[in-house]
């Protein structure tokens, strides 16, 4: 099992644990290098970094940025970023402001399906920062019995063609990669299998991502089958991209992979951290 996890969430975005609690769980489960990658927010990094220092964990500044590409929403991880880099900081603030409107649109779509009170219900699960996302609506739907668990939520609701889906324009791919690389970080495509792209569209995305300065593909992910791990490893090799790994941990009982429980990297690939000289 890998002791490196470069994709995790705290309650600053849509995770359950505080940044310090997340680090504590990672330490208990043998993680040696951890990135906190909250959605569109870097507010939890200082707390997590301090906790990681106490636990002798190498901590990586991270963020998961919402991107619109060809009418789809994809997620780009920024790893080893400078959270004080002004274009990144201001760009994330702009994205967060759009989440409020999207939440209202999601609630309106759920109401059309006969599900009332979802906006207030979702906000009941939101942390102090007020950042709201689909996961918060998912917890409301589970609590009210509309779905048995979070996995069921995203099969029945909140995705394209299902009740509660609301299209939203996020940041552009070129803009996002520029923010990340400008801050000195690595841009990584998160869980690419989740987007259900056909072969040609996937190739277009990976080619554009690489041409814009993207660094790596998240090959090891809770969203990927062993076969998909090999497929995305081959894509990385073909384009001379690095590979990354992450549990996408949100909380106990909600995530397919727990912290510290990632399978080994496929052979012949170069990890995104290979040239992080400080480590």
Brief overview:
The protein is of the alpha/beta class and 279 residues long.
Describe this structure in words.
Helix 1 packs parallel to helix 2. The protein has helices spanning 19-28, 45-54, 86-112, 118-123, 134-143, 150-156, 173-182, 199-211, 226-238; strands at residues 4-5, 33-36, 58-69, 72-79, 171-172, 186-189, 216-221, 242-246. Strands 1, 2, 3, 4, 5, 6, 7 and 8 form an eight-stranded mixed beta sheet that branches. The mean pLDDT is 95. It folds into two domains: 4-91 and 169-246, Alpha-Beta Barrel (TIM Barrel); 98-156, DNA polymerase, domain 1 (Orthogonal Bundle). Helix 9 links the parallel strand 7 and strand 8 (242-246). The protein has 279 residues and is α/β, with parallel strands linked by helices. Helix content is 38%, strand content 15%. It is built from nine helices and eight strands.
Q: Which H/E pattern describes the elements?
A: EHEHEEHHHHEHEHEHE
Query: What fold name stands as the CATH topology of the largest domain?
Result: TIM Barrel
The coarse overall form would be globular
**What oligomeric state do these chains adopt?**
single chain
Q: Which spans have pLDDT < 50 for at least 5 consecutive residues?
A: none
Overall mean confidence score, pLDDT:
95
Helix proportion range: 25-40%
The structure class reads alpha/beta
Instruction: State the separation between the terminal residues, measured CA to CA.
Output: 20 Å
Strand content: 15-25%
Number of domains in the coordinates? 2
CATH class of the largest domain, named Alpha Beta
Count of extended strands: 8
CATH superfamily of the largest domain: Metal-dependent hydrolases
Return Rg in Å: 18 Å
Number of helices: 9
Just name the CATH architecture of the largest domain.
Alpha-Beta Barrel
Main pleated-sheet profile: 8 strands, mixed
């Amino acid at each position: 099992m890998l002791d490196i996890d470069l994709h995790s969430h705290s309650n600053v975005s849509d995770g359950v644990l505080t940044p310090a609690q997340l680090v504590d769980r990672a330490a208990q489960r043998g993680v040696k290098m951890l990135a906190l990658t909250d959605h569109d927010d870097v507010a939890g990094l200082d707390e997590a970094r301090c906790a990681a220092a106490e636990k002798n964990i190498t901590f990586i500044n991270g963020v998961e940025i919402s991107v619109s590409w060809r009418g789809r929403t994809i997620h780009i991880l920024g790893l080893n970023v400078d959270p004080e880099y002004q274009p990144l900081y201001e760009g994330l603030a702009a994205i967060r402001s759009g989440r409020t409107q999207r939440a209202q649109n999601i609630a309106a779509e759920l109401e059309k399906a006969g599900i009332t009170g979802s906006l207030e219900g979702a906000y009941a699960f939101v942390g102090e920062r007020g950042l709201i996302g689909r996961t918060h609506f998912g917890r409301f739907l589970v609590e009210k019995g509309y779905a048995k668990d979070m996995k069921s939520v995203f099969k029945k609701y909140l995705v394209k063609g299902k009740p509660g889906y609301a299209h939203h324009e996020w940041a552009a791919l070129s803009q996002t990669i520029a923010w990340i690389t400008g801050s000195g970080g690595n841009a990584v495509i998160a869980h690419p299998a989740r987007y259900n792209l056909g072969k040609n569209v996937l190739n277009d995305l990976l080619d554009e991502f690489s041409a814009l300065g993207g660094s790596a593909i998240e090959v090891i992910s809770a969203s990927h089958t062993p076969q998909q791990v090999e497929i995305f490893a081959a894509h990385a090799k073909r384009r001379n991209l690095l590979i990354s790994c992450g549990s996408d941990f949100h909380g106990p009982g909600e995530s397919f992979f727990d912290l510290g429980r990632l399978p080994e990297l496929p052979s012949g690939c170069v990890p995104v951290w290979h040239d992080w000289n400080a480590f």
